[in-house]
Task: structure prediction
Amino acid sequence: AQSVAQPEDQVNVAEGNPLTVKCTYSVSGNPYLFWYVQYPNRGLQFLLKYITGDNLVKGSYGFEAEFNKSQTSFHLKKPSALVSDSALYFCAVPTAGGYQKVTFGIGTKLQVIP
Amino acid sequence: DAGVTQSPTHLIKTRGQHVTLRCSPISGHKSVSWYQQVLGQGPQFIFQYYEKEERGRGNFPDRFSARQFPNYSSELNVNALLLGDSALYLCASSLAGLVTEAFFGQGTRLTVV
Result:
């Protein structure tokens, strides 16, 4: 079964510092991977996706993610954190077969400290 | 352009009752998916509909059902509500049935008392 793991419940980072939110995956075949962000009392917003091609994927709001096949990781990164980046971040993988049955990680709460 | 809209935004029901949640996808999107998000967890897949047909079903009991209408809007129905059904129910729409990014509505917060 396709799955993702987010090993950190919470990540704290000072404003202006680089941030990393970790995700590892377990996928058969070529993985499709997503990152979503959820602000309090809101739905999820799409940040970026990896389908194939360059291992560094650029997304919305200055976020990027690095796909690493040997480490089966897809970590979310941003060079300089903003207080407004504080939110819940989800890594996700669609199931085999390609339809929109997406399995989400448990989420990582990012707290950016002014 | 309007995003994915869900109604109602909040709902309180009593155990044993029935509930219907509604979703209107982004114009042009033919795929609608439903997710349940319990506090402190990631969203759990319930259903996907594409072109009015069920294309995927998650590990939920038969008390959960859904349908998609000719205009691609969708309803999620839950019968015989349990306390454990209290959650944020999210609807997502996408252009196609195959893998692509989905756009989520703000959700319906269901509380079962």
Q: What stands out?
A: Chain A has no helices and twelve strands. The mean pLDDT of chain A is 91. Residues 17 and 80 of chain A are 5 Å apart (CA to CA). The interface with chain B takes residues 32, 34, 36, 41-46, 49, 51, 90, 92, 94-95, 97-107 of chain A (CB under 8 Å).
